[in-house]
Structure formats: C-alpha cells, structure tokens
Amino acid sequence: LMQTEQMVAGEDIAVVETSQGDFKMRFFPSEAPKTVENFIQLPKSGNFDGQKISYIERQQEESGKCRLFAGSGKPLTEPGESIYDEPLEQEISYNLGTIPGAVVAYAPEGTVDSRFYISGPPPVSREEIEQLTASNYPSQLVELFEDYGGYPDEWLHRTVFAQVVEGMDVVDTIAQVAVDENQKPTETITINSVSIETYQAQ
Fold it and tell me: Most exposed among 14, 90, 110, 202, judged by the fewest C-beta atoms under 10 Å?
C-alpha cells in the first residue's frame, strides 16, 4: 500500500494552512495523475484561499465515523473547479486505501473536480475484518483497517489521490467542531491557503 511507503526527496506535497492550524499531504501521481494535477494546479490561481470547510460528516458519536469535506468554496452539492475542459472521471487504484488520513476526491456524480474529503478514523468491527479477509482484500490493507480504522466499503469505489502525512491532529480537531442539523460547522473554519512544495528528505 503506497500510503505506508517512506516519502522520497522530490515528491510534491501540499501545505494546507487553516484557521485551526496546518497540515501536509503527499500525492500519488502514478495512481491518479489527472486528479493530482488538478489539485496541484488550482492553488496557483488561489482557488482554495479563504474557502470555508463546507461539511463535516459525523454519524453517531459512538461510531467514530467522521469525514471532513472542502474544496469548492460553494455548497457541497455544486460542482467544484477543474483545469480540464472535459469531465474528469474517477481514477481508482488497488494500491491506495480509504484509511484514516486518505484524501479522496468527492465525486457524487462520478466526475472529479476540486472537491475532496479527508477520511477520519472510524473503527472497523471484527465482523467487518472477517468479511474483508473472506473477500480476499489484500492482507496489508486488512491489517491497516484493523489497526487504524477507515472506510473499507469505499475501497475501489473512490479516487484516493493523497494522504495526510503531518498535522492529522489538526484535521481531527476540525472534524470534531460542532455542526448544525445539516452537518455544517457552526463556526467558520477556513482554508487560508494551499501551497505546493517539494519534499526534502531529512
């Protein structure tokens, strides 16, 4: 699973500055080249600057299920931005899983744009783990779901194109902000800026 591999010098990373703190994410251009390119190019025009976190999906508190949505600066139901003239279809990879911290393209109609969400860490039950094993899910992926949680039902159904590698505590803090009956944050949380940098190995 590529999300667990060590980063190498020269990788593009996004530094996302929010009103609650910063987080960083790495990209996987070999698996989702067009989705990654779309995300990398949009900050050059300031697309994400000043956007509000639009939606926090939180199911029953005891379930731990939580996802953080952003990326369009408009209601989640409205299309986001794209650098492409033609509709961008989903790019599905066997090598990327919907584990905590996975950055996933939000494509309710099957078309990818600037909208994205970050997976939280809902626990995966023992029964679900047994079902995954019986369904021949890769053993490494099953172990990750068992140890860290995630959304196994979304694997191979969503475009995973990046992974939070630093500042997941900031993402978790935002995800726990109070929401109204429509699951919109009751306080304004903004993405101040997104910058693309080159990772330098320590």
Answer: 202
